[in-house]
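TA notes. Do not distribute before section.
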Amino acid sequence: MSLIKHSESLTSNSLRQRFRTVRDFTMQLCEPLTPEDCCLQAAPFASPTRWHLAHTSWFFETFLLKSSPGYRVFDPHYEVLFNSYYNTIGEQFPRPRRGLLSRPSLTEVYAYRRHIDEAVAQALNAGRIEENPQLANIIEWGIQHEQQHQELILTDIKYLFWQNPLLPAYRESSVPLLASPAVRSRSTPPAPLWQDFSEGLREIGHAGQGFAYDNESPRHRVFLEAFQLASRPVTSGEFLDFIDDDGYRRPELWLSDGWNFINAEKLTQPLYWFHRDGQWQEFTLAGPRPLKLDAPVCHISYYEADACSRWAGARLPTEAEWEVAAANAPIAGAFVDTLLPNNLPVHPRACHAHVRVVMQDDRDGKAPREPLGAPHLNHVDLNAEPFLGNIWQWTASAYLPYPGYQPPAGALGEYNGKFMSGQMVLRGGSCATPSTHIRPSYRNFFPPDARWQFSGLRLAR
């Protein structure tokens, strides 16, 4: 079976341009980093930047270049050192110990990348793509794979810098994260509006336009009960009200595993939040900043997202509900490839101005604010707030195969399918995601306790 699906043919010229653009952007992401930054591993779930640089090159070497006539392997040891989890390929160096590899040096890894770049360019120039379209699929898969690791470079570096008492900035920005002082009502957070969706049969999954991973297929029908989806994600200010209302100390709001998790880890707020001089601060890729109350809350686990939704009198959407709502959403949110070139912080942008809720019996036009998730809210066009980008949004759906799913043959069949256990689905992309990497059918997945990604929530009911 084909690895990926496209509505248009892939040519050497189009792939050459995309390959070069993505590989160059990876190097651009590394420009603010020192060699020491690139070598450290902050946790078993994260990886050193140097490893990401090598692994994305290993991917092209393993799945594309080794089958090329006359290709010379850069270093045979790299097959083990930079294999992530492909048991079909062979042995892997243990993931929790990647930070112990002082060799190869960063200079050698950069040389490895140049070697791969030249070899892929030669394959494209030799016309092998036109001769074997399956090779075009592999190159496109490798490009998309590298974009995933671009996001991981940023999230892993942020977590690494968080361990440093200096709280260093990955990249300073001339644009402040907080343009003006935030004002918050501690007990009555401004409510979002809601979009109504009627019950009925819907279709979800990749529709055949452009690139898609195997886990987005096959497209299939689902029956949905009538539901509502909030017009925007939950903000940091609203999540702060959840905290102030003893959200982390009320067991009735939490799943059993979640309650055990937050107590074992002694969690009382999202990752990267802290107090300084009597004020809430958050650590960002631009260093410590005052907490931006009108931006979506992020760096929370599935457990925290679920508990907050219960506190709000709502729930998390299923991934089918989310995709139906986002089916026609434009790629218009905050993405890393639009933020960095404009010297903007890689951080969630503020939501649109809080909308005032008008009750049907509000004759003088001065309705009071209602609690988060309150009933009787007006209809709103979800396109008013970008649906994609900014933050990954937890859903209530376990990461499982779609009906009729079949993984690709060979080692690439390990890419997605074998992780369909013990993970939850996230949708939408984040400020660290490249804009050319996301689409409404994209299924991201992480364990329910993961917090180091830019993950937040949007309410449903």
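Switch to the second chain here.
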Amino acid sequence: MSFKPLKIGKYTIEKPIVQGGMGVGISWDRLAGNVSKEGGLGVISAVGTGAYKNRMYLDDDQVAGKEHRPKDAINFYSKKALNKIFENARAICGDKPLAANILYAQTDYDRVVRDACEAGANIIITGAGLPLTMPDAAKDFPDVALVPIVSTAKALRILCRRWEKTHAKLPDAVIVEGPLSGGHQGFKYEECFLPENQLEVILPPVVEEAKKWGEIPVIAAGGIWDHDDIVRMLELGASGVQMGTRFIGTYECDASDVMKRMIIEAKEEDIKLFKSPVGYPARGIKSELHRRIEEGTAPKIACISNCVTPCNRGEEAKIVGYCIADRLTDAYDGIAETGLFFTGANGYKLKEIITVKELMDKLVNGEE
């Protein structure tokens, strides 16, 4: 099966493979730049850019504590650092399309969307909540394509109705994400395990709903691992796929070597769904951090960065036992003892580190 290019708004992606946005610091300049260079769509995560290069773009009064955590959302989502990440990615991929992934649940959502558009994002991808106001955030950037993430056909219908009514606009593409993805899910904990919520079941109804609104490309995500999986999703009606975890196993991935090693060494039973301060269950590796949470010896929780609105300035973090901003930053910094390491359900299949070019060749042509 030959893969057709993926059209998103005015942009054409040569190979219909979208690299998932992964933060903090998993998909920044090196990974996203190289994925776009090799014909896919590189996606820069806008989460935690204030942690970029050990906070080198923040002044002393913008950080706190010995770890130099970014103070408040204005610094955790640093515009200066985001600009530099895009600048570096552009040096790799030139004028090929680049996207930014911006969580709807994050604090300062509208501001970060504008920052990403000004930094040079051609496409904005948003999940972690149904982004009903997404067009308003990007209203000054008509050339930027908007791609929401949904988990059901009903969610897409609600979103299209709202966008059409309030902005006379429809999504340029939509990502439908099943419950095998890494990080935050679009389902409640128990719902993630129900057969009717698996990607191959929820994808066709979303494809049918998208057709009712015109030519909206549907991108399948969550648990897609290899060439055969991509073919299967395309045969079910998808126009492309989004893959995150598989790209962690590349030399160019911006993740710490510690994180890459942890995923490579993880067994299937090590990958779990956890409670999160964001309000959605999240999938990752059960690590030393979770043992410390259970023992009551996890790092102290103090809301410094105000990263996501559902956390209510650390109240939800105290309930689940960890600050997601601090623990994801620890993972980026390679601190195994207190880092939070997200991965998709198939992360245990990762057994080697290869180049982005080699991975893209495998995904398009099949494994050797």
